[in-house]
Write a structure and sequence with these properties.
Helices cover about 20% and strands about 40% of the residues. With about 170 residues, the chain is α+β, with helices and mostly antiparallel strands.
């Protein structure tokens, strides 16, 4: 296991367009007996409702969504580029049928009973504040449905308070 240090939110410096949109991250949810992770490339960070917040989007079909919905907490782990294969694996395989974390060569860690991926450079530990299902009638641009949801597998947007930040 790696050693992480707490990091104050005002010390965090990263470009979310690069870190989330291009380098991707792993969202991990569950318990010590049943956890899963998945790759995300849609989301962001900022301030909402007076709290430091993160937001992510998870498709209805994803196994990790079941675990996220069942619990109060989740983590967002950012990894070095050397873990690109693991990120690809976690984004294209389901944890319903296998231990995806182990198969991707990753290690599960816990802080405050929140699962995270130990190989990360930094981790956002999050407490859910809202979950909003994205629906077709919410689109102001009709092309969104055609391009991103031809099969109807919609997303839920989760907004969470960032309760702790860990860095190596």
């Amino acid at each position: 296991m790696h050693t992480f240090q707490p990091m104050p939110a005002d010390m965090l410096e990263f470009n979310p367009f690069t870190k989330i949109g291009k380098e991707w991250a792993l969202v991990t949810a569950g318990t010590k007996t049943k956890a899963n992770t998945m790759t995300v490339s849609w989301g962001g960070v900022g301030v909402l409702w007076g709290k430091n917040a993160a937001f992510i989007f998870i498709r209805d079909s994803r196994y990790t969504k079941e675990l996220l919905d069942a619990g109060e907490f989740f983590s967002i782990t950012f990894l070095a580029e050397t873990y690109r294969e693991a990120l690809n694996y976690c984004g294209s395989h389901s944890g319903r049928e296998e231990n995806k974390i182990e198969k991707a060569g990753l290690t599960l860690g816990f802080r405050h009973s929140i699962p995270y991926i130990d190989e990360g450079n930094f981790v956002l530990l999050c407490k859910k504040m809202s979950a909003t299902k994205i629906t077709e009638d919410s689109f102001l641009d009709a092309h969104i449905k055609e391009k991103w949801y031809p099969d109807g597998d919609m997303h839920t947007m989760y907004v969470a308070e960032i309760i702790d930040i860990m860095a190596r």
